[in-house]
Amino acid sequence: MKRIGVITRDCGGVNAAIRAVVRTASARGLEVLGVMRGYEGLIHGDFVPLDRRSVSGIINLGGTILKSARSEAFFTEEGQKRAVESARGRAIDGLIVIGGNGSLTGAHVLAGRYGIPTVGVPATIDNDINGVDLAIGADTAVNVALDAVDKIRDTATSLERIFVIEVMGRASGYIAMHVALAGGCEEVLLPEKAFDMTAISNEIRAGNAQGKVSWILIVAEGMAKAEDVAAAISLNTGLETRIAVLGHIQRGGRPTAIDRLLAAKLGHQAVLALAAGESDVCVSLKDDRTVFVPLATAIRPKTMETASDYELLKVLS
Ligand code: F6P
């Protein structure tokens, strides 16, 4: 193996992972081509050579220096064939794909259907890669959202208000559950768990009657809209509510130490694995040891176990 390509999605810690890939590859005499804008760049042959110096000063930056895009074309056979031709045309011997479910599904296609040696690095704020305890970016997202929740708490407490805060996660309640617990919130609505609006409203009304006037409820975007939940609470209790929708701030921001360390280890191990002949797997850590999860397993839906964390939240709130 002489030349590898690296493809990315964006979230906190992805630049640190690119740096680890490039510097590990360079230490082993491998050339690296960065693929611009994810699979779109692979289809269109949009590559940029990366050496040790190109990845200086990026460890602390959010996003991805390689930019990213959702590629519809790559999920067609024609798009895939063009991508494979362009990789072969530039003598790319193997690929490292850093991203979430969509990216790793593409990696599985390239490895399984077209025989391009490909190793995945899990990176998604949703932390929903099956068989992977922690993906790069999830810790940063939780910390960004937590910072916002802490700030909202200042005003919620001062004005004795009820706030409903919507966080990211279409199919995953990872951010919501972790922010709710770490932020000392009263309630959390998760895609993984049905909720009862009447019971929640009754709890707020009863609490309010006993002098508990400030509440923070976290809602995962995939379960409900903050607006609708707030309106239902107001209707059922007659109390005033306010909302905040945190949105894409959660995919940005300075990566936490946890994400940078994970990125360093996984980026490094991905290169070693690719050079050692591994393919169609993603790298992960279990008890601080490297493990390889087959991509076919990694891209299956992962359902977060919520019962014990939810119970803890209700005991502590
Ligand atoms: O998968 C990561 C994620 O940030 C989800 O939490 C969110 O639902 C989605 O991507 C948003 O996608 P887009 O940036 O394309 O709107």
Task: Describe what this molecule looks like in 3D.
By secondary structure, the protein is of the alpha/beta class. Helix content is 43%, strand content 18%. It is built from eleven helices and eleven strands. Strands 3-2-1-4-5-10-11 form a seven-stranded mixed β-sheet, with helices on both faces. A four-stranded parallel β-sheet has the order 7-8-6-9, with helices on both faces. Helix 1 (14-27) runs parallel beside helix 9 (257-275), helix 2 packs across helix 3 (77-89) and helix 7 (197-209) crosses helix 8. It is elongated. The protein starts with a strand and ends with a helix. The mean pLDDT is 97. It binds 6-O-phosphono-beta-D-fructofuranose. 6-O-phosphono-beta-D-fructofuranose binds at residues 70, 100, 124-126, 168-170, 221, 251. 6-O-phosphono-beta-D-fructofuranose is lined by residues 70, 100, 124-126, 168-170, 221, 251.
Describe the structure concisely.
With 317 residues, this protein is α/β, with parallel strands linked by helices.
Question: Any key phrases for this structure?
Answer:
43% helix; 4-stranded parallel beta sheet; 317 residues; alpha/beta; binds 6-O-phosphono-beta-D-fructofuranose
Please render the helix and strand layout as text.
Blueprint lengths: L2 E6 L5 H14 L3 E5 L2 H7 L2 E4 L26 H13 L4 E6 L1 H12 L5 E5 L15 H22 L2 E6 L6 H9 L4 E3 L7 H13 L5 E6 L5 H12 L3 E5 L11 H19 L5 E6 L2 E6 H4 L8 H10 L1
Helix pairs in contact: 1-9, 2-3, 5-6, 7-8
This protein binds 6-O-phosphono-beta-D-fructofuranose.
